[in-house]
Design brief:
117 residues, mainly alpha
């Protein structure tokens, strides 16, 4: 995945990031653009959707780290907090949808097996 290096779990909490909030803003904007680009590529594959959910989770974490930085301007902190909550809601919805799709797939597979017996 392009930009995969930015998905490093250690990145948001690193000391360099807390000294350079601009770096974190740059990273989260980059991740958001990858999320947008991947949504325009008509990939209906389960693996692609799971990757998008993971990417959304990384975006949400970056935004939360930004919102928690004490040196960030209040308006930027508030914006990052609101966006973090919106991304968290998106992740929750996607997780529920993926769970339903897996259960439906399991049900259909089981039903096909029973019909072929």
């Amino acid at each position: 995945m392009p930009g995969g290096a930015l998905m490093n779990e250690d990145f948001p909490g690193s000391a360099a990031t807390s000294r350079q909030p601009e770096l974190l803003v740059s990273a989260v904007l980059h991740l958001m653009s990858h999320y947008t680009v991947s949504s325009t590529q008509n990939n209906a594959q389960e693996e692609a959707e799971q990757a998008r959910t993971r990417l959304a989770s990384v975006i949400e974490r970056h935004l939360q780290v930004l919102a928690d930085l004490p040196e960030l301007a209040p308006v930027l902190k508030a914006t990052c907090q609101q966006l973090s909550e919106q991304w968290a809601n998106l992740i929750e919805k996607k997780s529920v949808q993926e769970s339903k799709a897996r259960r439906l797939g399991w049900l259909l597979t089981t039903r096909r097996r029973n019909l072929s017996v």
